[in-house]
Protein 1
Amino acid sequence: MSKTTITPIILCGGSGTRLWPKSRAARPKPFLPLIGDTTLFEATLARCAPFAPPVVVTGAAHLTHVEAQLGAAPGASIIVEPEAKNTAAAIALAALRLPEEAVMLVCPSDHHIGDAAAFAEAARAAVALAEEGWLVSFGIEAKVPETGFGYLKRGEAIGKSGFRVAKFVEKPDLERAKSFLAEGIYSWNGGIFAFRVKDFLDELEEFRPAISVAVCKAIRDGREQGQRFYPDPAGFAAIKGESVDYAVMENTARAAMVPVDMAWSDIGNWQALHEARGRDADGNSVVGPAELVDCRNVLVESDGPRVSVIGLEGVIIVVDGDEVLVTTAQGAQQVGKLSGAQNQ
Amino acid sequence: MSKTTITPIILCGGSGTRLWPKSRAARPKPFLPLIGDTTLFEATLARCAPFAPPVVVTGAAHLTHVEAQLGAAPGASIIVEPEAKNTAAAIALAALRLPEEAVMLVCPSDHHIGDAAAFAEAARAAVALAEEGWLVSFGIEAKVPETGFGYLKRGEAIGKSGFRVAKFVEKPDLERAKSFLAEGIYSWNGGIFAFRVKDFLDELEEFRPAISVAVCKAIRDGREQGQRFYPDPAGFAAIKGESVDYAVMENTARAAMVPVDMAWSDIGNWQALHEARGRDADGNSVVGPAELVDCRNVLVESDGPRVSVIGLEGVIIVVDGDEVLVTTAQGAQQVGKLSGAQNQ
């Protein structure tokens, strides 16, 4: 590993609608033990343990969860966003508190990565490219023609394991997603990045000066409180919330990507969680008391009541407190629109 | 209506497994408001209100329910069976406490009859035949090739609206059930009967002398307590529990039937209940708080928690206390075998 300081920037946001009713506004996805006993946030911390102490960027609403689960990450610090303004501003807040030569490893806190060794190897490669001045995305190997993600198209090779990004592609329709898969030079854009602090801030200033100025001011006038840092809220409201992809990556001439196959999932809905979990020989996955008869590919999750299921295939059943959800795999994408998920 | 005394004999048994978890051992099917606000037992009483005060035959376990719901049936009496010994013995207990010339109208308490006028008309016809010495079954018009019921084959006509029973058929397989439906001379055996007391007792003595003797003794040595009558338990344990069909109807030379089409259902499982209930334009039926999105022919019944359902067709979802049941229409027939239903 290089001698550069590598600082994980862990982004903790999310509204708690897509895995409702398990995840709720007051109990969002990163902080739930969705796969095994570890939460996605804790697993993210564990993956980043080999690097410098992490910087967690989160909102006041999630602070209790963050501090409860941050536990064994010595030296970690927390930036409490005045309000959620998407990833460009969140990363900029962290960048402005770090040395210019440090490399940031930007990690969402609500993704599942099954193959930690593959992640570590890709992180090494991405950091090496970042040290050379590239702004690096992790390009997740596309396994199915997913229409819910953006894609990266590979350009010319850089060194042993990197590529220029030839094109950023917004969420495609199914036909295009299928052709991407067939062409073999498209990866999912998983929202994991490596940036040298100076390079990121230079590009942000170039392409989004308003965000750059507002975030600078927020950091300058902010205040420290223990491990927390509170940026000044004045001027933050005026920021246009944009993703780092849109604000920086699609504009910079130095966009690179590192392909990686690491059993990744954004656990973007119940079906994605079902696929990420271990299953029995019939494809069923059960958490809580349940009896399944003649079932295949059924997910059951209950926080108490026994769930008895007969004759179903490809169905997701979640019992949580005063809410019961029953959906098909396809319907799982609409969970966030349910009254229960909307009016929390 | 004739001047004969017509006494409804209302049979209240059942183990509470097939509509589990709504019906349970301690809260069986006849006493639940499954369709509208009235319980099946109350609806049975209401249908029988034009006749003499009813005799309810039940077990000690159901006595509380019976007395709570018997309410406005003046002069009703209750026979508390020492133990459940199927319908032949239950009817005999009632018969032995009635005048020989009375006609018994035997009604299960856990069936739904949508068309009360059709029932009343069939009852009049059945009673008329019983007064002539026939042992009369109601022959329910077969609407689908049901394999869960016995069938009656029509023989030669008797009077205006009756027929001899040419044959009793045990539960057929699907192929035979289909051919019965096509032939048009088979009805479902719904367990509703009209017998003159004397004729029934004569035939029971002829074909099942052991039951006849044991029941006589139980009545002779029994004791009255308010509206309840407790037959003596001695000798009752030795009785072989047999249905009245098997013990009497299949043996007697005087078996008749009255065809009737009265929107009947035995509510034998959740799918049958679903079909008997009112549904919306998509075929859905909801009791309790629920949100259904892209659903067809879904039944939801919840005693509290909200049930959110997406994209399902032909599925039954029941939430009751600490139990949740999710099953297909076909799976509904297996509900009684679930651990939850078995180990109550």
Protein 2
Amino acid sequence: MYVSVLFSGGKDSSLSAILLEPFFEVELVTCGFSLLPVGEVAAETAERLGFPHRMIKPDGSILEKAYDMILQDGFPKNAINFIHRNVIEHLASDPNVSFIADGIRRDDRVPLLELSQIRSIEDRLGVHYVCPLKGFGRAAVNELVQKHLVIEEGLSEDILKADYETELREMIIQNHGPEKVREIFPSHVQSHVIERRNA
Amino acid sequence: MYVSVLFSGGKDSSLSAILLEPFFEVELVTCGFSLLPVGEVAAETAERLGFPHRMIKPDGSILEKAYDMILQDGFPKNAINFIHRNVIEHLASDPNVSFIADGIRRDDRVPLLELSQIRSIEDRLGVHYVCPLKGFGRAAVNELVQKHLVIEEGLSEDILKADYETELREMIIQNHGPEKVREIFPSHVQSHVIERRNA
């Protein structure tokens, strides 16, 4: 069985891939809209983890619509969820993809699909969408991360990750300057995976 | 790291143990209140799966209180959830236990702890409570079960499982006869694990 794990280079998507590895043929998949070289960062991290990696580039209108949403809302939640849902649908439309996974944890609020959205994607597109960390709290995830990964942590503006936030931020900077980003995005700690620990 | 997996002999708790096996030292733990020989069934299945197994016997007042609840409610949900929460607390009070897991799936409604109850147990008792199948829908679970387990399925009254329902049913039969059980419990398909498939 094959699984395509949505991969940002952070600890949660990396750990998800590691948890699935004994049971699936894992490929890491990163979404990019070509605003920043997020694919290079992700590909390098994927190689260090030992998983095959590929990029997908959904239609740019998704990023543009998310950009409109975030400016109207003044906060990122709905825009990030919108991108996430569309990226999953994009991947699910690939006839070679049957299992899609991501790094959503029990305590995550963004990105997060509603159960009805998940079932709709599974039923319409004939895929399984799985979240290996959904039953794990933050402290349990941290113990597993510490055992299996070497990470660096830093504020979100200093860590280059291949997540949706990175390119949304860039689009806002290009159009409105960095001050607008600070208005919209709360400063929070991000992780970037350096390498895999031999367990 | 050690994990204690709550084990009924069914496919969900068996698969949960298998998913955790590459990352934890797994022990299977079955709760029994000595009304039926559920421990023997569970121990035999655990041996076939290749995991160490032990029984726990929480205070009988838990089963009695659940029995009162189910007769008053006329349906099993609250009583089953009550037993499940108390069994997890009982196990979490063991100073040698740090990770507790169960076989709850994404689409399960019973037993199910509220997030606030989970966090309360984790914070008060210093354990991690994890549900490896929480991010997997029914169809995804079925694919993994088919790959890793040989199971038999049958109606809940015909399959002897080591779950909470089994002894609650027995207590109702002893006090009110089998007709009362059929009133309270919907007839549903249960699984019992026969053996492990070499993947």
